[in-house]
Amino acid sequence: EVYPLIEACSSPIIGEVKLAIAQQLVGFKNAPLDQITEIYSHPVALAQCRETLSRIAPNAELIEFFDTAAAVGHVKQMKDSRAAAIAGVQAAKLHGMPILAKDIQDDAMNFTRFLVIAPQDTPKDACRSSLVITTAHKPGALAEVLNVFARRNINLEKLQSQPIVGQPWTYKFFIVVDAAGRELRDAVNEIEQSDHAVTLLGEYKAV
Questions:
Q1: What is the DSSP letter of 12?
Q2: C-alpha separations of 123 from 11, 119, 128, 204, 206 in Å
Q3: Which partner for 134 in 26, 63, 176, 197 could form a disulfide, CB atoms 3.0-4.6 Å apart?
Q4: Which residues pair with 161 in a beta bridge?
Q5: Considering only CA atoms, which of 18, 160, 46, 158 is closest in space to residue 105?
Q6: How far apart are CA 134 and CA 71, in angstroms?
Q7: CB 60 within 8 A of CB 36
Q8: Does residue 50 contact residue 62 with C-beta atoms inside 8 Å?
Q9: Coil, strand or helix at 96
Q10: At what angle do helices 181-192 and 141-151 cross, to 10 degrees?
Q11: In angstroms, how far is the first alpha carbon of the chain from the final one?
Q12: pTM score, two decimals?
């Protein structure tokens, strides 16, 4: 859901930041964890805590919500001690809700990557790039694109597909590669020569 917004943005990606994320179980004071039946949060936050929740709140259904902080607000409005949310400490403070269980993420080394977007030139030390590639409608199209990077020894950091609205069975791919500058341009030129469309979202330094 993020990459289409970036694609529509007029400014490029100029950097990335990785932050440690600690998730908290937020609910009503003194609510027994084994009596919680609904836990709301963003899908990513739910996924980051799934194993822990299966142990501490085994009777809870995990329900996706569009935002972690908003999930806390939603639970507060429900006024039901059987409901809880997953969010950060600041979201709990914002809504005046107590934390029932601290640091419930499954992985202690839980990080989320944030992209920096600004109307600036490409950093001189750029070594990573984000692209949108719409492949030609032919057999082996994606393999053809990936082979270009493989032959040039360019590492693929991320690959995410998304169907194109109004064009059945046609996909675009959001790709992150460890390359920038001339090395990237040469790869993009080769890909475009095979009738694939490429949009560069930005070149930046990897962290």
A1: P
A2: 14, 12, 11, 6, 11
A3: 197
A4: 173
A5: 46
A6: 35
A7: yes
A8: yes
A9: coil
A10: 150
A11: 23
A12: 0.78
- Euclidean distance between CA atoms 199 and 201, whole angstroms: 6
Q: Are 129 and 179 in contact (CB under 8 A)?
A: yes
Q: What six digits make up the tokens of 15?
A: 């950097």
Alpha helices for 61-132 (secondary structure H): 68-78, 89-95
- Both tokens assigned to 140: 């082996």
At position 62, the amino acid (one-letter code) is L
Structure tokens given for 74: 């939603």
Identity of residue 7? E
Tokens for 70, please give them: 């908003």
Residue closest to 118 by CA, chosen among 8, 12, 34, 9: 12
Domains delineated in the chain: 3-16+115-204 (3.30.70.260), 22-109 (3.40.190.10)
* Amino acid identity at 63: I
Which DSSP state fits 146?
Answer: H
